[in-house]
Design a protein that fits this description.
heterodimer; A: 621 residues; alpha/beta; five-stranded parallel β-sheet; 16 strands; B: seven-stranded parallel β-sheet
Chain lengths: 621, 374
């Protein structure tokens, strides 16, 4: 299991075991370390308190560890290392689960109480760092990646049919389920405790998104947003290794870099990974911004040949099937090769400040929600079908029809915006003799499993439209795709990616503002106003681009053999739980350029089948 | 004739409009009256009862406790209120009945038909006695043994109406809520950007309080000083119009409507403000000025009504004409840009509060009233 995640921590390794006894199971903690703070061997994990009572394994960073250390020292705690790991361990030893309230950072950790044999594990509030676990006949297993659980040999390699459906709905498996049956993710902002026999006592939530309650003036909102941004960026700079920042031409990364230049007394290193093809490249804009902000800027130019040659490695790094992630793998590899161990990213800005089209579309949908909701379900379906006929068969019409059929329900409308395969196509894809109807298809077009809905909690209905969309994006798209893929694909190269815009104190503040304070003439108006003149004028008004690879073209050319290999193997397709005829139909529609079938549909199927084949995972027979 | 001796078994009835149902100047005065009267009754072994027209829930026991024989809230039911009043005067021989509002004073006429020897008084605040009184109110006031006026202005207005002789009208200023006063030992701070604070009811009938004028003055202030925050604490049905006004003047980003707030949050806003402003045209007194003065904040009030009784122009703050937008903006700009003056006004205001408007002063005034009547 440890070797399976060695790529995440090439700098050190450790293992600790406790034998079985009458009242407790045999237990083992293993750890692979990527040294960021205190590079000495004193930081090796698993790490145990001086009195031997508690042992920890920890992945992540506690950004406020210095302040916590000072507090603990005042309480009489003595430290042997300069690590944040030791601070976390000692904090837990003093305060138990209440230690979570004080933590500011990205983390998953497990602590064993060596007196009782119980294990406590926790995950950070946004799900930046992962924790997968399995509780079954073989005992309780946990790991940072699913591949580590699979190689244990203790987990049946069976696809979870509910997860398969949610993957087809959204292009990523929705937590807390994973693609593997009975393997779960510890959800963001949750902790769990396990008894000495490896049985789960409880899984509880320790943090919620706040209600919006701000009643001040807009200029106060802007000033406080600025202050919290500065505070977050400053905290995220703590490292004993080379640190840099991704810089595209976008507002989010420019904001991060701009604030870094103000907080750091050294020249900030920025990186742009650019592509030969101009329409996909923000190279020129990033260069202008870097010059204006005075950073030491490195452009990493990739050719199509390099990218295609490295795709097999990128695919091998995928820990759970996802339609995204390859971009991140490519960028992370290039950045790590340039000598950086820690990179700051602007991820999170769109969710918090309203950068995604979903925010504007949701507002439009809500304007029609009231009259649509007066129609009964049958009539809405008829209107939806009519709309599709009038608009022609395209992705846009499919999604508009889904929104109408949903009666203007905001979550359903959001789900249709993010959806991959419609219900009809999904049912065809899943119509496999291997399923025996075990997948429960709900009435709604895009299937969000019940346990996933439970994680959204009160955010489903509380707050204005803007904040509800923010909640859905954070809970669904960001948690289940962006953060998961960013972790897996960056840690594949032992590159730690930090996300200052998802600092929970910043998030609590911004999320606590009413949507009216965050919207304006431009997307991300509040962020722009908070940065003010510190944001170069060049980035304002730019269309959001990001680092996008030309999959549309590749899937018709260079990647066609890969897709063929994956999707023409009928047995492989069927073992992945898909109907080979329906899969062929999707390929054909893409092949003829049908507007209803974009490249991501074909890619999503190919990645799924390829992943199942690599990991020898299949549906239950 | 003043009684300096034994008040035991003397019976006092307070007939009030409202003390606990909601916030407001009259309500605050009535609460303070309850507390002071209750303490007096307990000290002197007198019997105190109270009847409140609009109170529906149990009274706050910080204000109504050991000194009270009974406290009845009629829950806005006039029938219940009158029934209880009649029962009180029929079954008990009261020595003194104080009516907490001129609208309740005509009840004294019923009393005078059936009971003699009972002393009566009424409390007058502001607007309700600045306009012509009803015939029943005039008749009742004529028969009162005393009329308490919370400000010189109200006292003078009553004198001018010649309803009651000037020697019966006593000045009886409001005081700061004693529980408020006890919490002000935390050092006050100021904010960046500076915060202009108003604490008001924001109803359509409250437009005389001058919030419009302050909003209209913001463009001039911002042009001169840069960003400021104008924080308006309070509830009412006129908020949408004021928001639209701020939007129209392109100052909405500087204005904060907080709605009603719990006391602790309200205190924090007082603590952090740079200046308190309420250029009201028709304020009977303005207890909110006392609240700001408790935090040593400079204040700007309307040069009208009862406000000059509280705010001394050029000493504890500035007085402005409620419609003079330029004057209001200049007053605010002066205070926000002159730190020395601002602090001087604040210190003087707090000193004035501690000299003249404390709860101890209120108790002392009430003691004089009781001694003169019982």
């Amino acid at each position: 299991m440890s070797r399976a995640v060695a790529h995440r921590g090439p700098d050190d390794a450790g293992v600790m075991t406790w034998p079985e006894s009458a009242d407790r199971s045999q237990t083992a903690f293993t750890h692979r370390r990527l040294s960021i703070i205190d590079l000495s061997s004193a930081g090796r994990q698993p790490m145990t308190t001086r009195n031997g009572r508690f042992t920890i394994v920890f992945n992540g960073e506690i950004y406020n560890y210095r302040a916590l250390r000072r507090q603990l020292q005042k309480e009489g705690v003595r430290f042997g290392t300069d690590t944040d790991t030791e601070v976390l361990l000692c904090l837990y030893a003093q305060r138990g689960a209440r230690s979570l309230e004080s933590l500011q950072g990205m983390f998953t950790f497990a602590v064993r109480d060596n007196e009782t044999g119980e294990v406590f594990a926790a995950r950070d509030r946004l799900g930046i760092k992962p924790l997968y676990y399995y509780a079954g006949e073989g005992g309780f297993l946990f790991a940072s990646e699913i591949r580590a659980l699979l190689v244990s040999g203790l987990i049946p390699r069976v696809i979870d049919p509910v997860s398969l459906s949610s993957y087809l709905s959204f292009g990523a498996v929705q937590e807390p389920r994973t693609i593997i049956q009975d393997v779960r993710t510890l959800p963001p902002a949750h902790c769990l405790s396990v008894d000495a026999k490896g049985r789960i006592n409880e899984v509880t939530r320790y943090w919620h998104l706040p209600q919006d309650k701000f009643n001040g003036a807009r200029i106060e909102a802007i000033a406080e947003t600025r202050r919290r941004l500065e505070e977050s960026v400053e905290l995220h700079l703590v490292a004993d290794v080379p640190l840099g920042a991704f810089l595209s031409g976008g507002i989010d990364s420019c904001s991060i870099v701009s604030l870094m230049t103000r907080r750091s007394n050294q020249q900030v290193e920025t990186f742009t990974v650019c592509f030969d093809e101009h329409e996909f490249s923000e190279r020129e804009l990033a260069r202008q911004v870097a010059e204006k902000l005075g950073t030491r800027h490195t452009e990493i130019v990739l050719s199509e040949q390099d990218l295609l040659a490295s795709l097999p490695q990128a695919l091998a790094a995928i820990d759970q099937p996802t339609i995204d992630g390859i971009n991140t793998w490519v960028v992370a590899r290039a950045t790590r090769a340039a000598g950086v161990t820690v990179a700051l990213s602007g991820l999170g800005g769109d969710e918090l400040f309203g950068g995604y089209p979903s925010f504007r579309r949701a507002s439009r949908v809500q304007r029609f929600a009231a009259p649509i909701s007066l129609l009964n379900a049958g009539t809405r379906r008829q209107v939806a079908n009519l709309a599709m006929r009038l608009m022609g068969d395209s992705l846009r019409s499919q999604k508009a029809a889904a929104a109408i059929a949903a009666g203007g329900d905001l979550l359903s409308s959001y789900a249709s915006m993010r959806g991959l395969f419609s219900k009809t196509t999904r049912q065809a894809l899943l119509n496999s003799r291997h399923h025996n109807g075990c997948v429960v298809e709900r009435d709604k077009d895009y299937n969000i499993p019940d346990e996933t809905l439970a994680l959204i909690g009160n955010g489903q209905t509380n707050g204005d439209v803007f904040n509800r969309i923010s909640c859905y994006e954070l809970s669904l798209y960001t948690a289940n795709m962006l953060l998961r893929d960013t972790d897996a694909m960056s840690m594949a190269h032992a590159l730690e990616v930090r996300v200052p815009l998802l600092d929970h104190k910043l998030l609590e503040w911004v999320y606590g503002l009413p949507g009216s304070m965050k919207i304006g003439r431009h997307p991300k108006t509040l962020l722009i106003e908070a940065l003010g003149k510190d944001l170069p004028a060049e980035v304002l008004g730019q269309k959001k681009m990001g680092f996008a690879l030309p999959f549309e073209r590749w899937l018709r050319t260079a990647l066609k053999p890969f897709v063929a290999e994956a999707l023409e193997d009928a047995r492989g397709v069927a073992r992945a739980g898909l109907n080979p005829i329906a899969v062929a139909d999707v390929r054909n529609r893409f092949g003829v350029g049908a507007r209803s079938t974009s490249w991501s549909r074909v890619w999503g199927l190919a990645v799924l089948v390829d992943w199942c084949r690599r990991h020898k995972v299949e549906v239950a027979v | 004739m003043t009684n300096n001796g034994d008040f035991s078994n003397k019976r006092i009835l307070l007939v009030l409009p409202e003390a606990f149902e909601c916030a407001g100047g009259i309500q605050m005065f009535c609460r303070t009256l309850c507390l002071a009267a209750g303490r007096w009754a307990k000290r002197h072994n007198a019997q105190l009862s109270a009847l409140a027209l609009n109170d529906s829930t149990a009274p706050d026991t910080r204000y109504v406790n050991g000194g009270f024989a009974s406290y009845v809230g009629a829950g806005k039911s006039k029938a219940k209120f009158i029934r209880h009043y009649l029962r009180h005067i029929a079954t008990s021989r009261y020595d003194l009945i104080i009516f907490g509002h001129v609208s309740l004073a005509p009840l004294a006429l019923v009393l005078s038909r059936f009971k003699s020897g009972v002393k009566t008084g009424v409390i007058t605040y502001g607007l309700e006695v600045w306009q012509p009184l009803t015939k029943a109110q005039r008749m009742a006031l004529e028969k009162m043994d005393f009329v308490l006026a919370i400000s010189d202005y109200t006292k003078n207005q009553l004198s001018e109406q010649r309803v009651v002789s000037a020697d019966k009208i006593r000045l009886f200023p409001c005081s700061l809520d004693p529980y408020w006063e006890m919490q002000t030992h935390v050092p006050a701070t100021s904010s960046t950007p500076p915060v202009i604070l108003s604490v008001v009811r924001i109803g359509k009938e409250d437009r005389y309080k001058g919030i419009d004028s302050v909003i209209k003055s913001l463009p001039l202030i911002v042009r001169e000083l840069g960003p400021v925050v104008y924080r308006i604490v309070g509830r009412g049905d006129d908020v949408p119009r004021l928001k639209a006004l701020a939007e129209q003047l392109a100052v909405s980003q500087y204005v904060s409507f907080t709605g009603g707030l719990p006391e602790e949050e309200l205190r924090e806003h007082y603590r952090r403000c740079s200046v308190f402003v309420m250029p009201s045209e028709k304020e009977g007194f303005g207890i909110v000025f006392l609240e700001a003065m408790a935090y040593a904040k400079p204040v700007i009030g309307g040069a009208h009504g009862g406000t000059p009784s509280v705010v001394k122009d050029g000493e504890t703050g500035l007085l402005v004409n409620h419609q003079d937008i330029a004057g209001i903006s200049q007053a605010i700009i002066r205070i926000l840009s002159d730190k020395e003056m601002s602090e001087r006004f604040g210190r003087a205001g707090r000193a004035r509060l501690l000299n003249e408007f404390t709860f101890q002063k209120f108790e002392s005034n009430l003691d004089e009233v009781f001694r003169s009547c019982l």
